[in-house]
From TrEMBL:
One term of GO molecular function: ATP hydrolysis activity
Pfam families assigned to the protein according to its UniProt record, in alphabetical order: ABC_tran (PF00005)
Keywords assigned: ATP-binding, Nucleotide-binding
Limits of the ABC transporter domain: 2-220
Lipid metabolism among keywords: no
SUPFAM superfamilies in alphabetical order: P-loop containing nucleoside triphosphate hydrolases (SSF52540)
The UniProt record lists the keyword Chaperone: no
Protein name as catalogued: ABC transporter
PANTHER family for the chain: ABC TRANSPORTER ATP-BINDING PROTEIN MA_4021-RELATED
InterPro entries: AAA+_ATPase, ABC_transporter-like_ATP-bd, P-loop_NTPase
């Protein structure tokens, strides 16, 4: 179980980036929001990379007080920033997180990364995403914290990643801003995040059938606040923007 209670994160000049987020995650859940909404900041806080106010607990243990927790795994670049050869990173993760090197090699081969003697910094941006995601999943973690796993990755490899995300990890948070990937996660819960605040949860299949309309609708799946205005995520309305007609959540945010 991953629990966030009234979590706040501050940036430069004490600006509030994450604004009192409360979530309880007992399964794998999607977090959907535009660029700059605070998605990655929440993940960094959960992983102990970013300081926070409030409470974040993983299996009942406060993140700030955990010195080592091998059941939680992430694909954030900060966690793997050492400029080593790929094989050296695999060996290091085997020592500190019991990474299954054989599994990792097979997963990497599946997405076209077979030269493990190359330097991490020689990978393309898409390959970095793939490599980090393999590092996050190949230790059979209980909790997974996955940031933008489809970014700069071609469609064929995205299908492979979807299968990985479904197979590995029992609970956690998967962040994306790309709506066209959601149909592969039907039945999952998702939260929306705008301007550092979260809204939901909503079932993915219901969200894909919904529209966004201005104002508060009592029958809404959830009501979000964007740029100081209230908008309802509703099903069965003939007005508003259809979610399934948008490619990514940035278009929704910029269009309101």
């Amino acid at each position: 179980m991953i629990e966030l209670k009234n979590v706040k994160v501050y940036g430069e000049k004490n600006k509030e980036i994450i604004r009192g987020v409360t979530l309880s995650l007992s399964n794998k859940t999607l977090l959907l929001g535009p660029n700059g909404s605070g998605k990655t900041t929440i993940l960094r806080a959960i992983c102990g990379i970013r300081d926070y106010d409030g409470s974040i607990k993983v299996d009942g243990m406060e993140v700030k007080r955990i010195s080592r927790f091998t059941k939680l795994s992430c694909n954030l670049s900060e966690a793997y920033s050492l400029g080593l050869k790929l094989i050296d990173k695999l060996e290091l993760l085997k020592e500190i997180k019991d990474l299954d090197i054989s599994l990792a090699k097979n997963m990497l081969k599946e997405v076209g990364i077979s030269n493990l003697n190359q330097n991490y910094y020689d990978l393309s941006s898409g390959q970095v995403v793939l490599f980090n995601t393999v590092l996050a999943l190949a230790s059979y973690p209980k909790q997974i914290i996955i940031d933008e796993p489809f970014e700069n990755v071609d469609y064929a490899k995205r299908k492979v990643i979807i299968n990985w995300l479904k197979e590995y990890g029992e609970e956690g948070l998967i962040v994306t801003h790309e709506l066209d990937m959601l149909s592969s996660f039907e039945g999952y819960n998702l939260y929306l995040i705008f301007e550092g605040k979260t809204f939901g949860p909503i079932k993915v299949n219901e969200f894909l059938e919904s529209s966004i309309v201005e104002g508060e609708d009592p029958s809404a799946l959830t009501v979000v606040e964007i740029k100081g205005k209230k908008f309802s995520i509703t099903i069965g309305k003939d007005r508003g923007d259809k979610i399934k007609n948008l490619n990514n959540i940035d278009k929704l945010y910029l269009g309101v």
